[in-house]
Every structure is written in C-alpha cells, then in structure tokens.
Design goal:
Length: 113
C-alpha cells in the first residue's frame, strides 16, 4: 500500500517562496537567521535557513507574504530540521494572529486554484 504523508496533515500547505527572518533568544543575546519559505499553512511553515536551529527551539518569525495584507509576526517552535530545511509550528497565537494567518491561507488557496 502506498504511503501518503499529505493525508495526515491537519492543514493544506500552500507553496510560497519569500524571504523571512527567524529570531532565537540565546544566552548571549538574540540570534537572527535569514531564510526563504517553502510552504505556508494555518499551523506553520517550512523553510530553508542559513544557519542551524534545533528541534524544540522557540523562535519569533517575521514573514511578509505579498498576497497577505500585513507582515506576519508570530512565535513558532522548530518541529524538525533536515539539513537547511526546517519546519516550524506556530504556537500561542492570539485571536488576531490566527485570523491574519487564516485570511492569508484563504488568499493563497484562491490563487492556487
């Protein structure tokens, strides 16, 4: 039987490639990482990053997706890392942040049809 990893996903992913910034709090101050998103969804995003973040680490993300009205600034946890590819899960979203992410995903869905 073929295995379909996408069947297990909670939210649809939308391919979008834009630059973004991740900031991690470290003992000696903030560490800033730059990268490019690969995909975006209501629960998080996948991206390539210059540098290494560890699974379980918390970061602040800032990403401006052209199809979305405002830049998204949100807390996330690193879920996985495979080389330069990192997966981020959004955490502790306010009602406003969740609404912004959902609006953004709706716009991305409309454009992908």
């Amino acid at each position: 039987m073929a295995h379909n990893c996408h069947a297990r996903r909670r939210f649809p992913r939308y391919q979008v490639e834009v630059p973004f910034r991740a900031t991690a709090q470290r003992l000696h101050g903030d560490a800033v990482f730059w990268g490019h998103t690969l995909n975006f969804c209501e629960g998080g995003l996948g991206a390539t990053i210059e540098g290494v973040l560890s699974p379980g680490e918390f970061v602040s993300l800032r990403v401006k997706i052209p199809q979305c009205a405002v830049p998204i600034q949100i807390r996330a946890m690193v879920r996985y890392r495979e080389g330069r590819i990192h997966g981020f899960q959004f955490v502790n979203l306010s009602a406003l942040q969740l609404a912004e992410v959902r609006i953004c995903c709706r716009r991305l869905a409309e454009l992908s049809r």
